[in-house]
Amino acid sequence: DNLKDLENFRQRPYDYKSHSYNDMKELMRPYVKAFFGNVLQSHSHIYESASGSGFNLLLTLELLHEAPWQLENLTVYGNDYLDESVHLSQALFRQEAQPWFQHGR
Predict the structure, then answer these.
(1) Region of residue 54 (phi > 0: left; psi between -120 and 50: alpha; otherwise: beta)
(2) Per the confidence metrics, is the pTM higher than 0.85?
(3) Where are the domains of the chain?
(4) 3-state secondary structure (DSSP) of residue 45
């Protein structure tokens, strides 16, 4: 069962990368600032095709929330061909639920 992938996922390498989620988050921070900062507005949508386990979507959502732009009501969503990945992504977003985002289906 791949739900074990969610245990301590922030400290472990993920998606076949040698970096942990936390490391990737810091590495991606300048990219998100440079490429999303001047484009996204509140109520924007971000779509990721082949989003797999949802780690990249969660990472992007967290970085945008931490950014100084004060974006509100962003919608992030994705798809994946594998049911197992979809279930893992849904479990990830349920596990990491925060008051500033809502998890849908």
Answers:
(1) left
(2) yes
(3) 2-95
(4) strand
C-alpha to C-alpha distance for 62 and 79, rounded to whole angstroms: 19
| Distance separating alpha carbons of residues 65 and 61, to the nearest angstrom | 6
Weakest mean pLDDT among 4-18, 39-53, 65-79: 4-18
Across-strand partners of 47?
A: 77
Average pLDDT for residues 81-96, to the nearest whole number? 93
Phi, psi of 64 (to 5 degrees): -65, -35
* End-to-end Cα, the chain, rounded Å: 21
CB-based contact 100:65 (threshold 8 Å): yes
DSSP assignments along 57-101, one per residue: HHHHHHHHHHSTT---S-EEEE--S-HHHHHHHHHHHHHT--TT-
Check residue 15 and give its pLDDT. Answer: 67
CATH class of the structural domain 2-95: alpha beta
